Every structure is written in C-alpha cells, then in structure tokens.
Amino acid sequence: MHDLRAIREDPQGFDAGLARRGAEAVATRVLELDERRRAVTTRVQEAQARRNEASKAIGAAMGKGDTATAEALKAEVAGLKDSLPRLEDEDRALGAGLEALLAALPNIPSDEVPAGADESGNVEVARWGQPRKFAFDAREHADLGPPLGLDFETAAAMSGARFAFLRGAMARLHRALAQFMLDFQTGERGYTECAPPLLVRDEAVYGTGQLPKFADDLFRTTDGRWLIPTAEVSLTNLVREQVLAEAALPMRLTALTQCFRSEAGAAGRDTRGLIRQHQFEKVELVAVTAPECSDDEHERMTRAAEGILEALELPYRRMLLCAGDMGFTARKTFDLEVWLPAQQTYREISSCSNCGDFQARRMDARYRPTGGKGTAFVHTLNGSGLAVGRALVAVIENYQQADGSVSIPEVLKPYMGGLDVLRPA
Description:
The protein folds into two domains: 4-103, Serine-tRNA synthetase, tRNA binding domain (Helix Hairpins); 119-422, BirA Bifunctional Protein, domain 2, CATH 3.30.930. The protein is built from twelve helices and 18 strands. The chain has helices at residues 4-9, 11-20, 27-63, 67-103, 141-144, 152-159, 168-187, 202-207, 232-236, 294-311, 358-363, 388-398; strands spanning 123-128, 150-151, 165-166, 192-194, 199-200, 219-220, 226-227, 243-245, 251-260, 279-289, 316-320, 332-340, 345-354, 366-368, 376-377, 379-387, 406-407, 421-422. The strands form five sheets. It has an eight-stranded mixed beta sheet with strand order 1-11-12-13-16-10-9-4. It has a three-stranded antiparallel beta sheet with strand order 5-7-6. Strands 8-14-15 form a three-stranded mixed beta sheet, with no helix packed on it. Helix 3 packs antiparallel against helix 4 and helix 7 (168-187) packs across helix 12 (388-398).
C-alpha cells in the first residue's frame, strides 16, 4: 500500500516510479478520488456534529418553553438522520474505491534498482564458484532422477502435472537438504524457527500483497481460506496490526513449510522436472526492521541464502533485478541463480526482497521508536533460504557421476544416515 501523503506531495514522482515498472500513471485519479472522499468525509463529520448540537439544543429550548424552536430543531435532526446514512454510504464507497485503486499498484522501486522491462534488464552483481567440468555429457535431473527415486509418472497419475513422488534415498536427500537449511539459518544466521499455519484468511494474503491482484496464482479451500504460496505470508502476518517496541527489532523468522502455487502464469514453462511445481517445500526467511536498518538487513538476508549454496559448493551468481522484473511488493530484489550443468546456464533458486513499508501499510504493522513520540511503519523483508526442490535439482545435476549415481555433498552426509552416494536402482 502507498502513502497518500507522499502521493499528494509529489504526484509526478509517484507516476515516474510506476512508469519504471511499466505501470500507467494514476496519481491524478488517486488525488481526485482522495479529494472527493475527503470532501464527503468532512460533510459527514459536519452533519454528525450539527445533529449532536441540535439534539442538545432541543432540551434547552423545551426547558425555556420555546416550543417553536424545539420543533424546528427536531425537524432539522430528523432531516440529518435521513441524510446521514446516504452520506456515510458514499464516504465508505469512496474510501473502498480509493483503497482498491491503491491496492492494485505495485511498490515503487528503490533508486538503485536498474531500469528494464524484463529479466534481460537484470544486472549481475557477483559470482561464486566455478562450474564443474564433466568427462561425460551432463544429464538433466528429470532424466537422472527416476532410477534414483524421483518419480514423476506416479505423481502425474494421482495428481496431474507439476507434482513429484520421491522415494527411498531421494526422499532422504530431499529431507536432508531441508533440515540442513533450517539448521543453518537458525544456528549460523540467528533466525527464529517457526511452524506457522498453511491455511490463512483473506486478510493475510492481502497484507503480503497476493490479493487482490494474484488470486489466480493461489489455491483456495471450500471454506474460503487460502493455501500459502510461501511461508512469507504466515511469518510476515505475525506483526499484523501490532505496535512493536523498537527494542524488539529486528525480528528474524524462518520456517520450513509446504508451499502451494497454481502457476497460472507459467503455462508451458518448465513442464519437466522439479523446477516449477504446484506443491513444494521451501525454507523461508522473513525480517521485520526499523526503516533505517532495512538496507543492511537485505544484504544480511541475501548472504544467509548464499551461505547455503556455498556450503553445498554449488556455483551461483547474484542478480540485481531491474524495475520491470521485480515482484509486486518489492522495492529492491536480489535473485540468486544456481548453475545447472545440463542446461549450461544459471537458474533462479532464491529471491530476497526488501519491501520497505509497503506490506506494513497493508497490515498496519508499526513500531514505537525508543524515546520518540508516536509510531512509524516497520519495514519487511523476505527471501528463500532456499527452495528445497530447486536445491535438490542443483545437487543432482552438479554432483552426478558417469554411471548415473549422485554423490552426497559433505555438509549433507550427517543427515543421510551413512549414505554417501545415491545409486540407480
């Protein structure tokens, strides 16, 4: 959500920020609707005040025996009681219209975000590690996986496309990755482990920006709840409608959860393998900070995600996303892309975003500065630390051997019950 006062102060700057994201200029519409709503709100307040004033005056007139004045005041109060509901309805309708208009607008990019309409405008910031050289033709995980326990056919038979059934050592490796990530983020990086709900109400997905614009990307239950697309929803809403003490900041939260996405906008993309699934596990990172700390927290969070890739010895690169490729709620985003040898390219495995106060305004999440007066909106950040299925893809492909087996990365061996190689059945 956007700050109306900031739009009033600099409408041209607001439209310029939207233009960087490919969105149309709306400041004039916003300000016109805001002016109409404020005018009606003023009329409502004046009518309410006059009704209360006239009601008190009736008693005073009756006490003086001034029947004519009392009757005139009664008629005025009756007229106000008739007109006020219409004014109040108009006020609510204008307020709802203004909120709906603002809720559909993406966050304004930070000044350091590069221009660009799509992923071709993203900027590589850094690389880590050297891609392995194989003495054989590297194979994709969708080809390597089935003899190792990665079963797409069974999953498709029971659930349809974009599902997987993991068995045996493959399931163990998937679990090992998830547990290692969670242990790393809690033990090494100081995040607090959480086990949040997977089903949430409208307000929760509205607060983090999935509603109303991205409802088609979500799964909804018969009772009106939503399956979370990421633990960001549950974790960030922990501070919904809260006023936090500054001493409680930063809050750093992590959770390993199932995630559910309809992938409505991904028809025909990544139809093979684990890259884009309807159901997957992810270790999510969420931080809640004071505004002046959010840039540093963004770097810290990105390094926490990079730490997993480095521990797994998986080559990756960090990309600064351009304005046109960022998510709806982000003001600045770093994507981490891991090297996949079969594709001879880097693919996204983590996205770490600073949302500024955009989500906090939607959730009414504030903090009280130490020694200061009043409250201010917190800043929220979120990132993948990491997507477990995509990490499994990267391990399978980067640690594959000529005979179709996959060696286990050193950091995962303590989680594998003595197993150090996945061998084809």
